[in-house]
């Protein structure tokens, strides 16, 4: 195992609730209602793609110019960033800091491969930034389920994709990991992530240990 690549939202911490609140408020301002079930379809994809899905959902996909769409997306992000102000190290998911410590002690690079452009801000709030070898910049990279962000992450770690493990909580993310040729670890429900190609699924991050990852990779 040459590197471990992590999604951020839903794997390192729960920022999904902040995304949902920010998207819901933006959508309501333009007369669109979204619920938590619809929010599931936004997981793992980048901001403008999420906005497009919301506009289609509200039958408003032809209503806005590109500049107006960018303004709406920025409004959402401004609200999201303000909500992140309350994030603390205690918001890190169980087992994550311990796993990152094990990886660091064993000189196995950890990389963030997330569609979130706010990843550096979030990791700093969680006091986890020093544990990561690299944070892939999602700008200009095709979003998940395309594999590009994971391929780029492996390159930044100086690793071969086939010897990397990716950890995700979304269907699009699992598909991206597999398309990159990596071993895919899902966090969540087997019934959802299994059909997307996850090699193994754990119900929570508490199950993640270096030994389990090494064993899983050897059996692949």
TrEMBL record:
Its cofactor is Mg(2+). The active site is at residues 7, 9. Its EC number is 5.4.2.6. Substrate binds at residues 7-9, 23, 42-47, 50, 76, 114-118, 144. It comes from the Bacteria. Binds 2 magnesium ions per subunit. Mg(2+) binds at residues 7, 9, 168-169. Coiled coil: none annotated. It is found in: Cytoplasm. Belongs to the HAD-like hydrolase superfamily. CbbY/CbbZ/Gph/YieH family. This is Beta-phosphoglucomutase. It comes from Paenibacillus dendrobii. The gene is pgmB.
């Amino acid at each position: 195992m040459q590197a471990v690549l992590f999604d951020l939202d839903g794997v390192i911490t729960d920022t999904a609730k902040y995304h949902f609140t920010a998207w819901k408020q933006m959508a309501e301002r333009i007369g669109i209602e979204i619920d938590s079930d619809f929010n599931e379809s936004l997981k793992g994809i980048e901001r403008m793609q999420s906005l497009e899905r919301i506009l289609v959902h509200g039958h408003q996909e032809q209503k806005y110019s590109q500049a107006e769409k960018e303004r709406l997306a920025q409004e959402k992000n401004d609200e999201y960033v303000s909500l992140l102000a309350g994030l603390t190290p205690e918001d890190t998911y169980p087992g994550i800091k311990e796993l990152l410590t094990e990886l660091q002690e064993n000189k196995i690079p950890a990389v963030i491969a997330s569609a979130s452009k706010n990843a550096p801000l979030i990791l700093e709030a969680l006091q986890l930034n020093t544990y990561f070898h690299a944070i892939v910049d999602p700008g200009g990279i095709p979003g998940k389920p395309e594999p590009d962000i994971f391929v780029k992450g492996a390159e930044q770690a100086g690793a071969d994709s086939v010897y990397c493990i990716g950890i995700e909580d979304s269907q699009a993310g699992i598909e991206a990991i597999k398309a990159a040729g990596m071993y895919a670890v899902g966090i969540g429900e087997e019934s959802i992530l299994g059909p997307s190609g996850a090699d193994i699924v754990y119900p929570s991050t508490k199950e993640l240990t270096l030994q389990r990852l090494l064993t899983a990779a050897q059996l692949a």
